[in-house]
Prior knowledge:
By secondary structure, the protein is an alpha/beta fold. The protein has helices at 14-25, 37-56, 64-69, 77-81, 95-107, 124-128, 162-174, 191-207, 213-222, 230-237, 239-247, 250-256, 264-282, 316-332, 338-349, 355-362, 365-378, 383-386, 390-394, and strands at 6-10, 29-33, 71-73, 86-89, 114-117, 137-142, 151-155, 178-182.
Amino acid sequence: xxxxxxxxxxxxxxxxxxxxxxxxxxxxxxxxxxxxxxxxxxxxxxxxxxxxxxxxxxxxxxxxxxxxxxxxxxxxxxxxxxxxxxxxxxxxxxxxxxxxxxxxxxxxxxxxxxxxxxxxxxxxxxxxxxxxxxxxxxxxxxxxxxxxxxxxxxxxxxxxxxxxxxxxxxxxxxxxxxxxxxxxxxxxxxxxxxxxxxxxxxxxxxxxxxxxxxxxxxxxxxxxxxxxxxxxxxxxxxxxxxxxxxxxxxxxxxxxxxxxxxxxxxxxxxxxxxxxxxxxxxxxxxxxxxxxxxxxxxxxxxxxxxxxxxxxxxxxxxxxxxxxxxxxxxxxxxxxxxxxxxxxxxxxxxxxxxxxxxxxxxxxxxxxxxxxxxxxxxxxxxxxxxxxxxxxxxxx
Length: 396
């Protein structure tokens, strides 16, 4: 079993610098490499600012300079990889760039070194195919900003060894994080896939004239208790561009990775949603960064005030019954468990309650099934998305 002591981070953007900071704050020595001096300088500046904030709040019990001294900037990949027990890749979200990098990294490391990617979307099985020793590789998906967000997703690729997963899980606990293991290399992993299930259903209900955008977001905020509605969240995070970019490699990844998309109903909902997403891309409606997305934003304020009363007519089950159903599907095929689903949404997206916590307090299994059957009747071309999963039907 690998005893992880020496950490290397490749890529020093927002995520890479934040990850390096977390390890340094936990008294690990961290080697950092990035080809851009600008990224290095900006990353160090961000870490200094963040450490000062931790110090001001009494959450750092040592001099910030001591933490910074544990982050060592190296000039080349060879030095970054030398003697590393764990190498964390956090470069640009491009599969070709990442696989080329992994081939280089493997030249300079020992057989016991673990390599991980912070990718949020690229199949782990695809990335690990570039390596000779595939069992040492896993997904290690952090959430932004890394110093504040507790959740880490640890994703198994087709060839990932159990001891690799255990080493990463134990390390995550040691640095104060709350890890969840994603047992199949499924599209969107866990947290993002759950949010996408809700997003696709919201888009479908809007496209089919059930409700308008603000009504849906209002219901999610005031009835489900979310910090922001799904449409505003998509605008805020650049989700339109992300979904569109991923669609360009969808078929390639699906053919390559056997677990990438195992649910035809989810796939149909995705393809239906892409119709609106592609239209928005053509119109330049990318979200907050362009001033227009699902909403229109003024130059002076990006905040939205969504009234409670406009969501009153929304049947919340129209939105969440497909999500509950898909959560059961993910459990049934061995991706995860109920606790991890609830943890992922609470820690990854700041939900007040987990999905199963909310469902069990407010609804019966029969109500969920009736809602799905109603949706299937009203939207028959997407009936596979609304077919009650056998685990839900069994009443677990």
